[in-house]
Amino acid sequence: MPSKPSPLNSCRSGGCTLTGALSVTTSVVDSATIIHGPAGCAHHNFSLLHATGLDNDRITSLNLFSSGMLEPEVIFGGEDALERAIRRAVRGDYSVVYVLSACIADTIGDDVPAVCRKDWGVPVIPVPTAGFLGGSFQDGVNNALVSIAGTLTGTAERKNGICANIIGEKNLEFEVEENFNEVSRLLSLLGITINVRFIHCAGTGELASLGGATLNVLRDEGMGSLGDLLNRKYGTRAVPAFPAGLSGTLRFLQSAGEIAGTDAVESIAGETGAQASLLEDFSDIAGSSIRFDPVFPGLTDDCSVSEVIERLGLEISLEGVRVPAPLSPPVGTAGVRRLLHRWRRALHA
Amino acid sequence: MKQIALYGKGGIGKSTTSANLSAALSLQGCDVLQIGCDPKRDSTRMLMHGSFIPTVMDLVRERGDANLRKEDIVHTGFNGIRCVEAGGPEPGVGCAGRGIIAAFQLLEKFGALKGDIIVYDVLGDVVCGGFAMPMREGYAQEIYLVTSGELMSLYAANNICKAIKRLSLRAMSTCRLGGVICNARDTPREEELVAEFAKRVNSTLVQYIPRDRIVQLAEMNKQTVMEFAPDSPQAERYRQLAACVTKNTRLSIPTPLEIDALEALALEFM
User: Fold this and answer.
1) Phi then psi for A107, rounded to 5 degrees?
2) By residue range, what is the domain housing residue B259?
3) Positive or negative torsion for Cα B129, B134, B135, B138
4) How many structural domains does chain B have?
5) pTM of the model
6) Does residue A261 lie within any of the structural domains?
7) Which of A75, A78, A110 sits opposite B102 (nearest CB)?
8) Looking at chain A from residue 102 to 131, which residues have their Cβ under 8 Å from any Cβ of chain B?
């Protein structure tokens, strides 16, 4: 029986492995995804992703197929049903088809990789997603990224100029674009441009250039094994996580600069000044008494949040004004600013 | 209506014992239904004079369960015994245990589970919940273990005791161990060993069935011993077993042995 540690620094340590993988594969814009399992698994996940997309002001159009397993497929095996679903999917104009297995398909031992290996005319890539093995949502994300990275055929030829891949963005989180913009801004301070968002709204053509970057920036420390894989495959070292909080942002600049071979001293000095200005901007709430809103659980003891509280001299008290705890550590200086805006609104409400 | 199930290691002679038991019960005047719960589907073959009847799962696969009738799956064999084979998927694919569950649901739907006595002949090891289906509430109340004196056969029987014990602890469970049947392989002191095993798992040896060439002869002639050689000593053993099963009231919750104790027991009788 597997015993898997929770992904570090992640608020999505639970959840469905299949959904996690789906949040990645459906972000490959010219792909289709097959869920090999009962139709309800596809419906449930479609509803979830669609509703989350709407919450985040995005219309999600999912190229999703189901093998529609019923009891006969469970008894007699579901590989024929999967073949039928793949046949349907490859008739569409997709560059690649991903196959995600629901729990029951793995329980009965369908040989999904063998079915995918047949000649379908386009790449058909299996992603391990059976949640009953103990995996979490984040494991599904990681498995999908590893499966996709493992099948890319692009070369490791470096592009001109220093550029970075953004690896494993949390496509369902509300601030996915804001976080990306902040990381891009920080990297630009070091003269680093963006190569590929692996994977956020990218096509297979873009993904093939994954090996061309100077460095990778992982979204989450729980993606270390993916970082290692990319390092082995392309010789690309990785910054282990997005910048978390104030001092975390300065460490991020240091780390990215080291890997890129760029002196980060000036950038760090500039960002330190920007953070001081930020705290000055919120001096009106300095010293306030707050408590985290129990209705919206989030990170309450993360060091990046504690640092903000300390730097502004905020007091945590049972009598304090209820403020929302962040769902994940604030990304960069801009993430801290958005967090403080939310707290200010609560304090001034 | 009495419902019994025969469990034991693969190849130990469950189907031969089941078919002859069904035949003997039928000849005693009972209305008998025998259900083979093994994907290899040969439980009822001797009752059907060598024919492999279509299995419930084969028919579901070919026609879909909505297009099946009771007479498609229930076939009449020797002396009016009704025969059913649950069947299952091709070896190596799918889930045979779920197949057993689905077959039982169909039999329920058709009201086919009726008669004076139902004999379930079940795959050797209770490898998953599906193969424990005959032990569940509403099905077999009496489990008979078919074993020889060989260690692996006793090991399988002991494992089935564990399953019976686990199920018997459930609320409303009526599943109990009815006894142990020794289908001999002519190992030394075999009857004594199996009798002692039965005692240690809190049961009794209900019948010793010696090894006899007449069984193979009957099968070569595609018949049960009860039909092929009704006056043989072997047929008498099956009649005794049928009488014992009919009258048996000593039902127990088994006390399975630890593996060390089982091995020590086998060693005692070497």
Assistant:
1) -60, -40
2) 2-269
3) positive
4) 1
5) 0.81
6) no
7) A75
8) 107-110
